[in-house]
Amino acid sequence: MKRIKGSFKYIFLSIASLISVFPFIWMVIGATNTATDIIKGKMTPGLEAVNNVKMLLEMVDLPLVLWNSAKIAIISTVLLLLIASLAGYGFEIYRSKIKDKVYGGLLLTMMIPFAALMIPLFRMFTKMGLLDSHTAVILPTIATVFMIFFFRQNTKSFNRELIQAARVDGLKEYQTFFYIYVPTMKSTYAAAGIIAFMTSWNNFLWPLIILQTDGKKTITLVISSLSSAYFPEYGVIMVAIVIATLPTILIFFLLQKRFVEGMLGSVK
Amino acid sequence: MHRRHQHKRRKNFYQMYGWLFILIALVLVGLFNIYPVINSLILSTMSGKGVVYSFNGLGNIKRLFSDTVFQTALKNTFIFFIFQVPIMLSLALLIASLLNDKKLKFKGFFRTAIFLPCVTSLVAYSILFKSMFGYDGIINVVLMNLHVIREPIAWLSDPLWAKVTVIIAITWRWTGYNMIFYLAGLQNIDPAIYEAAEIDGAGSFKRFKSITVPMLKPIILFTSIMSTIGTLQLFDEVVNLTSGGASTSSLNATLTLSQYIYDLSFKYVPNFGYAATVSYIIVLIIAVLAFIQFRLGGDRDEKN
């Protein structure tokens, strides 16, 4: 009985894993096939990879598009980590009744859906003359309340005696933050960094609203517009999807351990 | 006396210094979250197309009641929410509790594989699913070969199956994400509690029901609120997978509120006032649902 139960567990987890991984295999195989083969459900690799890459390069300025995505994602990740960690640290280390109330208010704003913000934000950036600019894509994403929450939760496990020691040693408060807090919280930064980078790299709705000229567009926008054609060139699109997914997969595998550690900290 | 005074001064100094740390975040959240949400509320009482706006009172709300497209979008969004969130969260909880077993082999592999979908962009996986769920596509081919179905299913063009496809797609993307939160929570539970229960003769289902679920209540609450917010904002998937149902035989079979707001603002003749009204419906629904979830899930003593 116990053995049957045990093997059921493995079968269930194997099926779940297969379902989770299958679309990735599908996307890599698809990148080597023609659109017709993909639509017909061909599951073996083909010989069209080079051709698909060539077609993609003819259809879009790929280096520029990737550069746009990378620039936006890196700048917003760095700024977001700085701003959110400062705030998370500030709320937890310098606790006071008023700050706790302000923090509670901030958490409430987490429930505001982006749909309710996008029209006023669009009008605001239009007035500022920032329509079709990367600045407008980045700005609303760098103050994410979830990240402030994430850093505050993780700061609870930060050893406060280090702060006392730093104060005795005559370090200024901001020095304590940059020289002691930041290096000890590497895992938290790594986890938050992965989430922030992926969110920005994969962002769709807001860039879709703000970015209008082709030269400004990100990889996500390009993939979406390629697939909305009447006869989508799936082989070409799959190549684009593989390229767009590679950075996030790489980052995930490189920092996986840190990532899981960081997530653990957030629910303590 | 002098020392206490000095102590108080230092305390005040640190309190003031603390504000500096949170200042930038507060300014930005105020500018890009709080100001827009208030602005949106004001906008929802205005009417007009393009640049000219005039006060319209409750006119926009009246319009909601006769707007069949809005009602379709509302209905669709609710269907997605009611089916998708419970399916996904129970699946995530089940997988997490299986993975929490210390004796389980290949744990790292299973965890990584099941988490992997989370790294894809919503747009990319929607298009992958679109290519897989075509009429002649791989999913129908496999299901026919396994004799699960006799005829291919029109996954993307049938109004019912199009909704099912969207639900399958979102579940694929987010189950692993929620699983990680549950796994993290499970690791904070002392294994001795489980051992004691096992000695007392509690079966695995009993242990799951009376230890795992109550201990994870705050995390379940957190994930269910986050998923609720996510599902009610559904946009990328429906736009890229089924074009909001424009490709289905019945128009708008998967149109969501978010997509309708987008269409009202950027696709049709822009009517920001009415679009803002629709967006406030989402705010309202989230507020009500979050309140209900807090009531159901958050015992006062467990809130921390």
Written description of the protein model:
Chain B: One of its GO terms (biological process) is transmembrane transport. The complex is a heterodimer of chains A (268) and B (304). Chain A has 268 residues and is mostly helical. Chain A contains 15 helices and no strands. Chain A is globular. The mean pLDDT of chain A is 91. Chain B has a two-stranded antiparallel sheet with strand order 1-2. Chain B has 304 residues and is mainly alpha-helical. In chain B, strand 1 (46-47) and strand 2 (54-55) form a beta hairpin. Helix content of chain B is 72%, strand content 1%. Classes of the chains: A mainly alpha (268), B mainly alpha (304).
Write the layout of secondary structure elements.
The complex is a heterodimer of chains A (268) and B (304).
Chain A: H1 2-30, H2 35-39, H3 49-59, H4 62-93, H5 97-109, H6 115-127, H7 134-138, H8 145-155, H9 161-168, H10 173-184, H11 186-202, H12 205-210, H13 219-227, H14 234-254, H15 256-266
Helix pairs in contact in A: 3-14, 4-8, 4-11, 11-15, 13-14
Chain B: H1 2-43, E1 46-47, E2 54-55, H2 59-66, H3 68-99, H4 107-115, H5 122-132, H6 138-145, H7 159-187, H8 191-199, H9 204-215, H10 217-232, H11 236-242, H12 257-267, H13 272-297
Helix pairs in contact in B: 2-13, 3-7, 3-10, 5-11, 7-11, 10-13, 12-13
Kindly list the characteristics that best describe this protein.
heterodimer, A: about 270 residues, mainly alpha, globular, B: about 300 residues, two-stranded antiparallel ribbon, about 0% strand, flat, disordered C terminus
Principal-axis shape of chain B equals flat
Query: What's the pLDDT, averaged over the residues of chain A?
Result: 91
Please state the oligomeric state of the protein chains shown: heterodimer
- Strand tally of chain A is 0
Number of helices of chain A: 15
Beta percentage of chain B is under 5%
What would you say about this model in short?
The complex is a heterodimer of chains A (268) and B (304). Helices cover 76% and strands 0% of the residues of chain A.
